[in-house]
Write a structure and sequence with these properties.
By secondary structure, the protein is mainly alpha-helical. The chain is about 70% helix and about 0% strand. It starts with 11 loop residues before the first helix and ends in a 9-residue tail after the last helix.
Length: about 300
């Protein structure tokens, strides 16, 4: 008895090829790690966990400022100028009789809002420019690279000072200018990682299926570079906070009487010569501790190179 071979179904090879392509896509999308709490703690280490707790504390302090601040940060008293530590004023009062602790708590808001604006704009611009350059390549890549090279020539603070000189001092103006200055650093790193992803087989498989370049970039390449994006945002947050505090210290950022850590350091400078150091020291410590916490968490999560900076 002769055994009959079953006829092949039409389109069977095509379905098999599509299955292989889908498996390649799923496999590569699965390469993006999903970090649980235990993995996060192991990655950060003891110092990193403490740093993360400090970050969370500062964020909560900013969110709950109206509830936890003991006094109105704008209300002062001539008779309460430069009061020492006490149960009534745990950090004393400033030259206008305002409670320093209350201004530290409220100052967390402006000190976090500015860097947040910087890193969000930076991440958006850097990601769009990097992915556009990688996908199209050729002249588009060359033009974007030249634009980034030009931005590299301008220090961040110089761009911010120029923007403030043109549009006037404000937190928003300084933040946007710093974001433009930060963009080349992040775009360079995102481009290098995205370029490696662009040349992998799963991208070619998706193109053979007729999937558009926009969908491939959005669904597959972008998730595989998100670690570099998020880590760069974390590290750049600290740099942005320092530079915005410096601008406020110079009177080019947040304007009085708004509570801000950098502005408090500047306002307390004259009082230092009179022996009243509380305002400048406490505000300066808040800046240093917060920046160190953000920087350490970012470096532990992805390394210094993730922000495109070697310092």
């Amino acid at each position: 008895m002769t055994q009959q071979t079953p006829a092949r179904e039409p389109g069977r090879n095509t379905r098999a090829q599509n299955t292989v392509a889908v498996q390649l896509l799923r496999k590569h999308r699965g390469d993006v790690p999903v970090s649980g709490w235990r993995l996060l703690v192991r990655r950060l280490g003891p110092v990193g966990v403490v740093s993360l707790a400090i970050v969370a504390l500062v964020v909560l302090m900013a969110l709950l400022a109206p509830v936890i601040a003991p006094y109105d940060p704008f209300e002062g008293s001539v008779t309460s100028r430069h009061e020492a530590w006490s149960l009534a004023h745990l950090m004393g009062t400033d030259q206008s009789g305002r409670d320093i602790l209350s201004r530290i708590i409220w100052g967390a808001r402006t000190s976090l809002i500015g860097p947040t604006i910087v890193i969000v704009i930076t991440a958006f611009l850097a990601t769009v420019l990097a992915l556009t350059a990688v996908w199209f390549g050729g002249k588009v890549d060359a033009i974007i690279s030249r634009i980034l090279d030009i931005l590299f020539a301008f220090p961040n603070m110089l761009l911010a000072i120029l923007a403030v000189a043109i549009f006037g001092p404000s937190l928003l103006t300084a933040s946007i200018a710093l974001a433009i200055g930060f963009t080349p650093y992040s775009a360079r790193v995102i481009r290098s990682v995205a370029l490696r992803e662009r040349n992998l087989p799963y991208v070619a498989s998706a193109q053979l299926q007729g999937i558009s370049g926009f969908l491939i970039t959005a669904r597959h390449i972008l998730p595989n570079v998100r670690t570099q994006i998020l880590t760069g945002m974390t590290i750049n947050f600290g740099y942005a906070m320092i530079e915005l505090a410096a601008l406020s210290f110079l009177g080019l950022g947040v304007q009085p009487p708004t509570p801000d850590w950098g502005l408090m350091v500047s306002n307390g400078q004259a009082s230092l010569q009179q022996g009243f150091w509380e305002q400048s020291i406490f505000a300066g410590l808040a800046i240093v501790i917060t920046v160190a916490a953000f920087g350490y968490v970012g470096e532990q999560l992805g390394g210094r190179r993730a922000a495109g900076r070697i310092r």
